[in-house]
Amino acid sequence: MARALLVALVLLTCGTLYLFIAKIWWMPTLASVSGAAVDREFSATLLILGVVFVLAQVALGAFVWTFRRSKQAGYSTGHRGAEIIWTVITAVIFIALSLAGERTWAELRTSQTPAEQDVQVEVTGTQFAWYFRYPGPDGKFGKTIATNVDASLGSASAIGLDTSDPASKDDMVTAVLVVPANRDVRLRLHAQDVIHSFFVPELRLKQDAVPGLNVEAHFKANKLGEYEIVCAELCGLGHYRMHAALRIVSEDEYSQWVRQQNGAAR
Amino acid sequence: MSDASRTDRGTASGILGRVFSRDHRVIGLQYFFLSLTAALVGIALSALMRFHLVWPGASLPFFGAIKPEQYLAMLTMHGTLMIFFVLTTAPQGAFGNYFLPLQIGAREMAFPRLNMLSFWFTLLAFLVLLSAFFVSGGAPISGWTHYPPLSAVPSAGPGQGTGMDLWIASIGLFCFASVLGSINFIVTVLDRRAPGMTMMRLPLTVWAWFITAILSLLAFTVLHAAILLLFLDRHAGTSFFVPEGVVVNGSVLQHSGGSPLLWQHLFWFFGHPEVYIAILPGMGLTSHLLSTFARKPVFGYRAMVYAMMAIGALGFMVWGHHMFVSGMNPFAAFAFSVMTMVIGVPSAIKTFNWLGTLWRGSIRLTVPMMFAIGFVSVFVTGGLSGPILAQPALDMYLHDTYFVVAHFHLIMGVAAVLGIFAGTYFWFPKMFGRQMNSTLGYLHFWITFVGAYAIFLPMHFLGMAGHPRRYSQLTDVHYLQALVPLQRFITLAAFVTIAGQAIFLVNLFWSMRRGQVAETNPWEATTLEWGEPTDSLTVARGAYEFNVPGAKAEFLPQREGQDAS
Fold this sequence. Notes:
Chain A is α+β, with helices and mostly antiparallel strands and about 270 residues long.
């Protein structure tokens, strides 16, 4: 039985290592600038924890196998030196890991300064669809009114746009998020009914959209293509089908798309 | 001596007296069978969920096809049953009640009547919860965490009406029962220890139950308050959790000024300590079993006690790590992240000390020992994804994906369940006077241990591939198609592992009647439960005196006058 346990634990370790090295299932290709820091952080953490994992599992199996039914057990109630050493070592590892993680987080979330040329988009989550609003040439989002909400009358009504507000005249509401590559995108997330969560794996970005709050999120895409925005917070029976397309396009394509949208609106 | 040969003290006679018993052993067994029932329902629900995930269109006999809302109702009920009625109830309510008094040399819990009340409230809570399946709209669909506004607004989905109210009622009763139970545990440990049983001579199982009781007292009271506020939001027109301007199904709600995040703060202030409520008793038992079956004292007994205290205390300071992407101020993440990482230190101390206990032992691989070793393995695997999720930048990617499902199932679900199995095989001779069949026991261990890894290891990769959790089917999001084969494998592994639990059930009920009659102290253990409490009982020494140099016997029982006999 001891041998079986040792074999099982060694197989577990090898199998897990193989899956992490072979990367058969892994994070999708990165499509954002900021995501690189996340991937770096993830690899470094996996490396450190991988070593701990292997050592602990193999030690467990090896100890059980070595000391199975040995004739005389040794007597020891502990060892202060050993306790101090492993406490200090784990404390140093975990705190170092923590500091590195904090630095990445600070870089991503707390040290952003908005700039004039940033693309601004308001994201509204509702059961079970996403709406995206661009402020138009005036750079201002018009008012929305809860009592105006009527999803059957098209995208602008779905978020309850107040058409009497001058700022809302040039607002553009779409069901697809289109952004230019290599430009900072500033999202203002908001939910109409229950909590939703804006998640694009390729951007390494997830942020809850909460009723009553306007939550800021930020990314800079660097890989052209079409991606899926999914909902990551349980929002009701249609949670599994709440998704929308994200298109990352070139500057030219972006301005063409904006012109088209404005044309269609008029 | 077994329970059957023992006369009931302090309880009315007759059938009613036996059912409404104030005897801690009877109450312990009542809790045991309650959580066994809850576990069977919870497991059945997971089988249905796994089935629906990979064959969403298939219809079941007598049931038809599972609808998305039914999947979510099952998910909610699975989580609630497992967390409250299995992981909280079995280690603490069942084993704690039965063995805590015995292990400290007390004849009864401090408040037997309160103890009885606590069980009956828990049972009532269980029945109220199950009734949610049968009301119109069915059981609630907002997950066991019930984030408002989804949980606060009856029109937000099927099951959010009466079903949700029943959930609130059930958990209200459960919280009340838990508070009664935890007061009882705390007082019993502080006040009812036999002469000579100092705190530092307590078995680590007792330390774990004691610390768990303190956590329960502090955590369940907060949950109780939170669900009361949720109830008021639903029925009394208050706005604790619902802000202004919420539009559900085209109609504007008459709420203003509430915050959905307030619920999350309150809920996780309970929810995170709850994880430790589930796992600490398993940690205590693992220490106990590793020492007993390695025939060696626990390595670093004091360090183990302090580590459990540290885990318990830190457990109240980390709730924000469930909220890194909730919209909480990103600066708050710094503090919660560091505190969470720091919890890794006492957890690592425990792992090192377990390995230290095995080192140079004379290991007897009994069935309970196998489960205890399994506990260590799973605790390490499940624990190590903690420092990944504790980093907000990584959590931003992995939050609410299957990576989290893998993490918490391993660390709190599987590890705690292995602990419960270990306790069952270990204490069965005391509870029923017979031994469980060990061949079936080993078979059960292997299926469970390998099966649990086969189910939950792959889920890490689903999460890394960006698979969100709580999706009733994978039919709509395109990138999930590539993950269907892996989901199928998991479903298959789940079916085999679930089927394997039948071996345990057969063994359990067969051994109760037909098992080999057990000796008084079948495992050659040192602690007091392997004798009967008497008035003259005094405790001579610490809990884990095995192979003491110079001693005449291989092990020295804690009970005075039993050494060297």
